[in-house]
Amino acid sequence: MRKSIIRRATKSVDIPTASTADIAFLLILFFMVTTVFRATTLHLKIKLPQARSTERILMRRNVSYIWVDNQSKVYMDDNIITEDLVAAKIAPKVWDNPELIAILNVDEMVNYGIVDIILDQLKEAKAFKITFATEFGRL
Amino acid sequence: MQLREKKKTKHVMPTSAMGDVAFLILIFFLTSTVFTKDKGLKMLLPDKAEEEDIVQVKPENIVMVMINPAGAIRIKASGVEKDLSPHEYDEIKRIVEERLLERDTLLVVSLRASKEAPYKNMVHVLDQIKLCRVTMPDGRKLRANKISLIPTSEE
């Protein structure tokens, strides 16, 4: 009689550990996918002009970039090229993909003359879809 | 009176894995989503014109915007000729919209930037032209779609 009064409730308390492996794998996969090994560092300092009618370009697979820095140097595919070589560089890409959009990342301090030469080169290579890269902003 | 005892079965769907599934989907989309970082002003260049392709545009359908090496703007539209300082961009929009209301879809905006003109000014002018939006009296919404960039070699 007395014994039953002081009897303690025995509960089994344990943390389930079966899914620990799942969590570990999840973390592994997460870091595998998000880690990017930087192979090259491009030191291009380009300040894009601002424009209020800036639109997003949704076709990411169809783009090719042309960079012009504030020293009027033209870069394409990680190489410095002269502006009259743009047509030769972009023509095979247009041949592969007629929907190609050439994105011109041109520094805002560059003279328009060089942009005009590039536009002429793009016309020659039949890369008619172009975008002047800009930052969204108020004037 | 109950003749037969009914069977009572308990149906339980295991829900403990629901959280795992949710996290899996969350992480999948976290890693596979790519935000578009490319943005800019879209243009469609014309093909190199053959002699027979050249279309004459009536002078009254043209708004000519010129940018000089200092970035100053001159805007020329049938009879009106106006010099603007490099920061009166709103005026371009006003004039183009006015012409658009009058000339409808026939309007061609031609942008002629000098070789030495800063690219920035050319983009700002192009931006103003692209911002133009008018509602015609019959309810149609119009934009200045016909923009031509005049090559500097034609100066």
3D structure, described in words:
The complex is a heterodimer of chains A (139) and B (155). By secondary structure, chain A is an alpha/beta fold. Chain A is 31% helix and 21% strand. In chain A, helix 3 packs across helix 4 (112-124). With 155 residues, chain B is of the alpha/beta class. Chain B has a domain at 59-154: Nucleotidyltransferase, domain 5. Chain B has a 5-stranded mixed beta sheet with strand order 4-3-2-5-8, with helices on one face. A two-stranded antiparallel ribbon of chain B has the order 6-7. In chain B, a hairpin with a 5-residue loop joins strand 2 (62-67) and strand 3 (73-77). In chain B, 23% of the residues are buried. The mean pLDDT of chain B is 81. Strand 7 (129-133) of chain A pairs antiparallel with strand 1 (39-44) of chain B, so a sheet runs across the interface.
Rg of chain B computed from alpha carbons, rounded to a whole number of angstroms: 30 Å
Give the percentage of residues in beta strands of chain B: 15-25%
Q: Which structural category do the helix and sheet elements of chain B fall into?
A: alpha/beta
Give the CATH topology of the domain at 50-136 in chain A: Nucleotidyltransferase, domain 5
User: Could you tell me the mean pLDDT of chain B?
Assistant: 81
Task: List the quaternary state of the chains.
Answer: heterodimer
Determine the structural class of chain A based on helices, strands and strand pairing: alpha/beta
Please give the count of helices of chain A.
4
Q: What's the CATH C level of the domain at 59-154 in chain B? A: Alpha Beta
- Point out poorly predicted stretches of chain A: none
Total number of beta strands of chain A: 8
The two chains with the largest interface, and their residue counts, are:
A-B, 48 and 39 residues
The number of distinct β-strands of chain B equals 8
**Given this structure, which CATH class of the domain at 50-136 in chain A is correct?**
Alpha Beta
Number of helices of chain B: 3
Low-confidence stretches of chain B: none
Overall residue-averaged pLDDT value of chain A: 83
> What name is given to the CATH topology of the domain at 59-154 in chain B?
Nucleotidyltransferase, domain 5
